[in-house]
Design goal:
Length: 546
Amino acid sequence: MKKSIVSLSTMAVIAFTAIVANSVHAAPKKVVMIAGKPSHGPLSHEHNAGIQLLANCLKQGATELVKPEVHLNGWPTDANVFAGADCIVIYSDGGGRHPALEGDNLIVLDELMKKGVGFVTLHYAVEPTKEKGQAEFLRWQGGAFEVNWSINPHWTANFKLPKHAITQGVKPFSANDEWYYHMRFVDGMKGVTPILSDLPGSETLSRPDGDHSGNPAVRKSVAEGNIQHVAWAYDRPDGGRGFGFSGGHNHMNWGNDDLRKIVLNAIVWCAQADVPADGIRSKVTEQMLMANLDPKPVRKPRPTPKKKGAKKKSADGPKPLFKSPVVTTSIKGHAVEIDIDIKGSKELHLVITDGGNGYGCDWADWAEPRLISATGKETKLTELKWKSASAEWGEVRVGRNAGNRDLKIAGQPVPYGIGAHANSVISYELPKDHQYIRFKARGGLDNGGTDQGDGKATSVQFMVFNASPILEQLLSKAKPQPAVSRDPKEAVANLDIHPALQAQLFASEPMMLNPSNIDIDHRGRIWVCEVVNYRRHKDARPGIAF
């Protein structure tokens, strides 16, 4: 009897100990979330808003698993923020602007990775440079974007999901984004598990070869039908975990529950916490998506300081010394000659506007721009430093186009010049010790724009001023131009879309011949009623017998 009592007591102690042990939860894993500086236009590359949104979602659905700490506008200045970190998340620009490549930041990260800290990069942040960072990124997350190997088209991908902790609770989904693909992975993809994969369409390779746009290797891979991976998980040999996600260009895509859950699950997984069977649940509203956005106004040229005795400018702003017609591919050589009198001018302002039909594909070049003195001596404008330069897309570059490729007009190389994208303004202060009397150049359409689609979307107007122009007034007075193409491939490019919306082509001729009614049901599905085999569509499609 005594032995039985002891046994029962022992069992009671064991049961009580188990209850106490189960009531103690492991401390949440520390996740350091770094947002890059503002970049691109509204609702694109919203690093600060996006990282805060993801942190908010982690607090909603993973509060017992991870503890996110957000750091905005670049690399944290206090190194102590990394103490005790279990995972690092970076959502930023990449390449030479990657915050991880600044100073000794790669060394800081390497020390963390050696301790098994997780590593997550989102969108452009998956791209280091080949010279700095690529070896480390391959070690830490198993893959990375590599220039002249990987490409960055916008396309709609359809994802079927593998079985993995990161895909728990996620349903197959589609999304239009700037999905980078043909990534560089570790040898044999050892330790890499593709998470989001699809076969891109040929339209994603419509651009000419370039460091981000195309190359023989990627064209061959897609032609052979090789599935491309745009998000992947990595089990590191040292026990750490990594995750690369190439989406995230379009901010509104964070409203996609399945896309967002993939990233939330991945952060939890990389922090070595257990992802719930149904994934990390979160709810995002339109108000949340529109919160914390970086202010991204239309860039304006700096106003010229007023001088005493200066004549007051008219309400319409200064008059241009030169104003071209709207330049399109219908103009011979895709360019106009510029030869104007600038005698007595102290400033020079080169303006490119979109011609009034929106600035899609509006790549343009100031070809062979030069200043002529009274003695006939020519000075290349590219040898002078501008006072300011801004463009709606890409960057203003000397000797390169807006996309950082060789300058070409109508397929011909430009000996020297300046590449930009409408709408843009480049301002110079002319040297005081030279008396220039003429400005000469060619204003032309760069192949970076005209090589897209059938080239008919590109249209710009060149202007030259000797006083600071008022860009907003120039744009408001631009006369609207008729749509230049009815090709379905240009359908979305020809639309004016509210920043909070996205548009993508889902059906066109001949899939749809003669729509007579379109409606949207309570589930958001679009229904199209067609009249077929009628008049000019007779016998175009087999009829339906009733």
